[in-house]
Amino acid sequence: METVRSIEKGRTSTPEFFTVAALATELGLSLDELYILVREPTCTDPDTGHD
């Protein structure tokens, strides 16, 4: 749990591959699905479509 907190708070800016893989597994995602989600463009303001 401390690892997740570190990632959230920015103390761990580049988590280990196996940490990311373990989190994806716990969230029910394959690494392929995770890759697709990470590559999708995101916006913070759905009204304007801009960050």
From TrEMBL:
GO MF entries: DNA binding
Keywords: DNA-binding
Presence of the UniProt keyword Magnesium in the record: no
InterPro entries on file: Cro/C1-type_HTH, Lambda_DNA-bd_dom_sf
Ranges of residues in domain HTH cro/C1-type: 3-34
Protein name per UniProt: DNA-binding XRE family transcriptional regulator
Source organism: Thermomonospora cellulosilytica
